[in-house]
User: Fold this.
Amino acid sequence: MTKDLLTISDFTKDEILQLFKKAAELKGMTRSGVIHEPLRGKSLAMIFEKSSTRTRVSFEVGMTQLGGHALFLDAGKTQIGRGEPIMDTARVLSRYVDCIMIRTYKQSDVAEFAKYARVPVINGLTDMYHPCQVLCDIFTVSEKRDNYLDLNYAFIGDGNNMANSWIKAALVLGLKLTVAAPKGYEPHADLLEEVRAHGGGNITITTDPMEAAKGADVINTDVWVSMGQEDGAKEKLAAFGGYQINDDLIKHAAPDMLLLHCLPVHRGEEVTNEAIEGEHSVVFDQAENRLHIQKSIILHLMDNIAAQRA
Assistant:
C-alpha cells in the first residue's frame, strides 16, 4: 500500500524521529558539497493551485540534489483547471511520475488524489493542514535544543492550517503545546474534538496570548490573513490586535526562547520587525530547513515503495 503524507498523523513518532535524523544527514552532506543522488531517474510532479516561493524552490531544488527531476504544474493551466476529475488526473500522473506534491485549498482534494494515485502523495499545503512546514519547524528546534520533545511550545495567532498541524504534531509526539487564538478563530473543531478524545493530553487551547507565552521555550506564529482570505482582512486584523509577537509578550517566555515563523511575514502585524531580527529568531534557519526536511520526506515515502516491491 502506498504511503502518503496528508497530515502529520500519517507518520508515527518513530518515523518522524527518523525523518529528523535523515534530514540532519542530508543537510550535512549538502553543506559539505557531497553529491548524493539516490533518486536518479525519478520524477516529482508539483501541482500548485496556491502559489509559493519556499514550497516550490525547496521541493524543486531538493529533487535536483537527490538526482531526480521536479515538474512544476500550475493547476490553472492543466486539465484540472478545465474540470478534469481529480481521480483521472491522479491515475494518469501515477503512470508518468514517482511522487506527487500538491499545494491547494481543500484537504479533501489532496485526500482524493491520494485515494486514486499509485504513487506517494505529499500535502504541500491546504487550508486545513501544512504538515511539511510543522515537521520543518520541529526539526529546526531539534537542532537548537537536545530536549526538544520536552519543551513548552506555543502557537499564537490564527487557528489556521499551521495551528491545526501543530496540534497533530503534539498528539503524535506528545509535545506540550498551548494554542492562543481569538474567539471565533480557534483551530478546526474536529481537531479540538480529537484533543478531547485524547483526554486533552498536554494541549491547551486559550484566548489569552500571554498565557500561551508564559514560560514558553518556543513561540510560533503565522500571518493573520492567509492566502485566499483577503476579503475578511479588516475584521480579522481588528480581532487579532493583542496577539502580536513583540517585546512585551516575549518577556513572558523563557529567557532562551526560540521564535518561529513559516514566512512570508507581515512585519508590524503578527510580529514586530525587532522580534524577527532579534536574538530569539530562527526563522531563516527554519526556512532553509524546508529543503532538508522535504528531501527526507520524499526519500522516506520512496523507500517505503521500494521496500514493498522488494
